[in-house]
């Protein structure tokens, strides 16, 4: 039978020293009203009994937790893990901790995450909206209660809160231009759900690139998916059934691109010889698959760092929502790999 491990509490220390719990608590916090002798006794016993303070409980008593609540759509996507890494960098510098909740791209779970953060009294919520989110009531509730909210990547201007995004429009424009520079002329786009602003913006960047380059806009070359590997596969199959298939594909993100590449391989089609591919997000797998995946890097670690800094900058100014909401826009960076490189760029 496993022996239960008793965690030493302030009450345990007080009982052994024949002091009140409040005296022990003040001694541990170096309160000036407690004598040096008593502080020494309490701290020595705390060390001997391996006492660990309950940081959350003490923070709740003070009314602030020094915890950032981070709400992400999926923990399976390296993009969001990298953003969290950036958030943690800045949180640690400010002696804050990070509490993570995953919405699984579901609005209901997203609402649960917000409620969890409210119950935990986090100092701030940093969130990226789920693909299925169509109502924002849970986020407006945060604002109503005065809980700071910072959005990153998938944001909503309707909420009027500080946010950090990459220039999705510019990224799509550059990705499409790159395919043209590789000699492609029938460039397809596998798009995402259009109620999600970043996916709509990437589609617009693709359309505008075609217009700027004098290429015709063919709506049969735009197919709409669910931003998954499976959806990317099916969308690519749909494009291959066209009387004149594309010679290149700009995918809305890397998992969609991966599905498209699998469909091309199953059909015996050369990448990039017959059809070139470029994705968006710079997921970790991209450089390890064959051929390696060209993509648009979103500066994820910096995105997380900027999101956390926005909270600390606004908090230092006083009332969070009295300061006009700032949107930080990061420049996209194209990553050229084998899936799109048809011509010698050197």
From TrEMBL:
Domain HTH lacI-type positions: 8-62
One family name in Pfam for this protein: LacI
Protein name per the record: Transcriptional regulator, LacI family
Superkingdom of origin organism: Bacteria
CDD domains recorded: HTH_LacI, PBP1_LacI_sugar_binding-like
InterPro entries per the UniProt record, alphabetical: HTH_LacI, LacI/GalR-like_sensor, Lambda_DNA-bd_dom_sf, Peripla_BP_I
Lineage: Bacteria, Pseudomonadati, Bacteroidota, Chitinophagia, Chitinophagales
Gene3D superfamilies: 3.40.50.2300, lambda repressor-like DNA-binding domains (1.10.260.40)
GO molecular function: DNA-binding transcription factor activity; transcription cis-regulatory region binding
Key words of the record: DNA-binding, Transcription, Transcription regulation
Species name: Cnuella takakiae
